[in-house]
């Protein structure tokens, strides 16, 4: 399901100052691309999408793409780390070239990707905090909307943050 949030009207209680006590969230460096790829692979695995071979192929195809995108800042990623520096989760934003909309004269479209929390760190508010930091960052950059595709598990979190379903459609070529 494709979702969008407009205006980033996150409440005061959701501000990025409301950090989880033992979790630090910071932007990932290009040298941490392997962690992001691990999260992307794990995210699809946990969503029940793709065979082992398909997930491995995705990682191989994404590896050079991610290196380029982190280097030219067209993809930004944030990591959540616990007190001992273990990566607990993260999420990122893709900045795509876009020919502007009537209500949003911006030549970039933003898409949130790769939102993932390691199973043992789930249900502590980490994904929510990662999302709030990403939304604050987008707001500071002047963006007026952001899109994402929600998994079944992620959808309640996004809806609580104000995301709404869009009119996006999809036509698949080849086998279903
Ligand atoms: C979806 C996902 C990212 C959520 O990560 P998370 O860190 O557990 O998310 P949060 O803790 O912020 O919120 C999850 C739930 O825990 C609840 N929660 C938060 N803190 C809590 C606490 N201290 N005690 C109990 N529950 C808590 C939240 O209210 C939320 O409930 P909801 O699902 O009913 O809205 C994670 O489950 C995941 O990685 N899933 C597999 C991949 C995936 O689907 N990614 C999303 C792609 S769109």
What would you say this structure looks like, in words?
The protein has one domain (2-165): Gcn5-related N-acetyltransferase (GNAT) (Aminopeptidase, 3-Layer(aba) Sandwich), CATH 3.40.630.30. The protein is built from four helices and seven strands. The protein has helices at 33-46, 52-71, 126-141, 155-160, and strands spanning 2-6, 24-27, 75-81, 87-97, 108-117, 145-149, 164-165. The chain has a seven-stranded mixed beta sheet with strand order 2-3-4-5-6-1-7, sandwiched between helices. The longest helix has 20 residues, at 52-71. Coenzyme A is lined by residues 43, 46-47, 89, 115-117, 122-128, 150-151, 153-154, 156-157, 160.
Number of DSSP E strands: 7
- The succession of helices and strands, N to C, reads EEHHEEEHEHE
Give the class from helix and strand content and strand pairing. alpha+beta
CATH superfamily membership: Gcn5-related N-acetyltransferase (GNAT)
Adjacency order of strands in the biggest sheet = 2-3-4-5-6-1-7
CATH topology: Aminopeptidase
CA distance, first residue to last residue = 17 Å
Low-confidence stretches: 9-18
Mean pLDDT, all residues: 92
What is the highest CATH level, the class? Alpha Beta
CATH architecture: 3-Layer(aba) Sandwich
Total helical segments: 4
User: Which oligomeric state applies?
Assistant: single chain
Largest sheet: 7 strands, mixed
